[in-house]
Amino acid sequence: xxxxxxxxxxxxxxxxxxxxxxxxxxxxxxxxxxxxxxxxxxxxxxxxxxxxxxxxxxxxxxxxxxxxxxxxxxxxxxxxxxxxxxxxxxxxxxxxxxxxxxxxxxxxxxxxxxxxxxxxxxxxxxxxxxxx
Length: 132
Fold this sequence. Notes:
This protein is α+β, with helices and mostly antiparallel strands. The chain has four helices and five strands, in the order ααβββαββα. Strands 1-2-3-5-4 form a five-stranded antiparallel beta sheet. The longest helix has 14 residues, at 22-35. The protein is globular and about 35 Å long. It starts with a helix and ends in a 6-residue tail after the last helix. The relative contact order is 0.16.
């Protein structure tokens, strides 16, 4: 019961960042600055339960950008540690290129990752290719 009450309190106090079209413009500026490239196209993925997720196509290839929608989730240090550990074990995962919980320009931070072609997990489940 104690865990549930803490979770409820955290959920109530953790203001969720809503999507605005300004995110696209800010994302172009951030990606071009950090990756020293030219953004060609940004496509927002429709389904993101904890983040606003975008495919960002540049003149140097595609990357994934995640704009965090919650103050306390995720923890960049944990994400970087998990990514590094998986790569050390030769487990093929997209590399994290940048992760920040800073407030500029996105209130709760953002992350840039390598883009991997394929089918989303939700699509694979709906098509019966994988199961929970």
